[in-house]
Amino acid sequence: MIEFHGVEKEFPGRGGGAAVKALDGIDLNIGRGEIFGIIGRSGAGKSTLIRVVNMLERPTSGRVTVAGIDMNALDAAGLRAARRGIGMIFQHFNLLSSRTVYDNVALPLELAGLKRSEIRAKVEPLLDLVGLSDKRDRYPAELSGGQKQRVGIARALSSEPKVLLCDEATSALDPETTTSILRLLADINAKLGLTIVLITHEMAVIKEICHRVAVMEAGRVIEQGDVFDVFTAPRHPTTRSFVSSVVGAELPDTLVERLSAEPLPGGNPVLRITFKGALANTPIISQLTRRFGLDLNILHGRIDHIQGAPFGTLVVEAVGSAEAVQAAITFINVNNLSVEVLGHVPANLRAVG
Ligand SMILES: Nc1ncnc2c1ncn2[C@@H]1O[C@H](COP(=O)(O)OP(=O)(O)OP(=O)(O)O)[C@@H](O)[C@H]1O
């Protein structure tokens, strides 16, 4: 639905400084009907990337196509028409304070020259969809942040776009309101089949609703894939640090302090076993104990859900012979769970974390 081919964007340096390469060779395909998240730290190039989709920023080089249309090649009238098919919502909502909820949602339709009856026929179901029918005559100043964003969403949907761009749409909202807005976006995606592109600096937002994710750093996409895969097996250190902020992959300090890279005389290895999807239901601990005669001392553990599928890690001290531990590791790998030896601890370490 949206394709980026070798997209670059360079801004002239401010105050005579060096030019800034905000986008540095972006190749990305966003499929029809998917919720695609783009995450990165401040300055990574996220806003620039989302703004080249509707040519609010023109790429310095490369090509952006939306539904097969080469956006760079459009003249002013073509671009106006193409933009009607691309809705956008913003962090600070961008509502007109002098207009009521109804009139804010109606604005794009008025500008497109629709009749009052046609406008009403479109705006009323949209207010219903975003749950604001009872607020239609209120002004933005009388609304909460979440309600303002609902108006923004209804307004973006008024021209029946095929694509909705969300520029940090929940960053100004509290966690509970964020969840309700994300649920609304997921609902709209499912009901209308709309393609949603969402930029954020919060991995929790990606985890909540995105199907796929791209991680940006210094104008480049450094990792991309299905959200479940990226969360359960992040490859790039930046991605790992984003992921650990929401799935607790980090070990407690008290355990890290006691871990030794080398085996300790009389000590025991520490294993991290990772469960994914249906495999999270495998009774692995009791199997290892029965089959290999190991005692497993649980040091740390966590189960999370990503896109409705369970994902968990369990950190255990394995007490038993070296051969039994090796056989257990082979058994875990054969069973499609993953296991990693994190290090070694002195015997009799008490559970921490
Ligand atoms: N109009 C501009 N003129 C000059 N430099 C710009 C302009 N817009 C963005 N930049 C620079 O381009 C880089 C990428 O900015 P961009 O806003 O796309 O990042 P971002 O990931 O969205 O960051 P944030 O999360 O802080 O909004 C930054 O170094 C920024 O300073």
From TrEMBL:
Keywords: Amino-acid transport, ATP-binding, Cell membrane, Membrane, Nucleotide-binding, Translocase, Transport
SUPFAM superfamilies, A to Z: ACT-like (SSF55021), P-loop containing nucleoside triphosphate hydrolases (SSF52540)
Any one GO biological process: amino acid transport
Protein name: Cell division ATP-binding protein FtsE
One matching Pfam family: ABC_tran
Lineage of producing organism: Bacteria, Pseudomonadati, Pseudomonadota, Alphaproteobacteria, Rhodospirillales
GO cellular component, one term: plasma membrane
Keyword Transport tagged: yes
A GO MF term: ATP hydrolysis activity
Species for this entry: Skermanella aerolata
Domain ABC transporter stretches: 2-243
Family per record: Belongs to the ABC transporter superfamily.
InterPro entries given in the database record: AAA+_ATPase (IPR003593), ABC_transporter-like_ATP-bd (IPR003439), ABC_transporter-like_CS (IPR017871), ACT-like_dom_sf (IPR045865), MetN_ABC (IPR041701), MetN_ABC_transporter-like (IPR050086), NIL_domain (IPR018449), P-loop_NTPase (IPR027417)
Biological role: Part of the ABC transporter FtsEX involved in cellular division. Important for assembly or stability of the septal ring.
CDD domains: ABC_MetN_methionine_transporter
